[in-house]
Amino acid sequence: MQIRAITKSIRISPRKVRLIADTVRNKSANYALRLLSLTKKRGSMPIQKTLQSAMANALNNAKVTGKLMIKKIEISEGQALKRFHPSTRGRVHPYKKRSSHIEIILEEVSNGTKN
Prior knowledge:
Layout: E1 2-10, H1 14-24, H2 29-38, H3 44-60, E2 67-77, E3 81-86, E4 92-97, E5 100-109
Antiparallel strand pairs: 1-5, 2-5, 3-4
């Protein structure tokens, strides 16, 4: 059975969040939580909260009490805020403040696997 949790419009660039997501992909949920709590990157907190939400969904909604693995973790681009930086001679330099969406899908495993 697959359990899903989604967090939308996190004000961190998807490129930065994907660095953290790659470290916990295909790991057990408990091991990934411990790994995220020790990671000193800004993108680890939203992933950690989304993973905790997915684990709570598994316990409360799907009544799954076994070992959970991260089957899929996907970071997609959210809406970008378009901003401008003033420059010399009355010009402007546009830039984007990017946001991201996080989707985590957990799966219950029956046999013991590593991590």
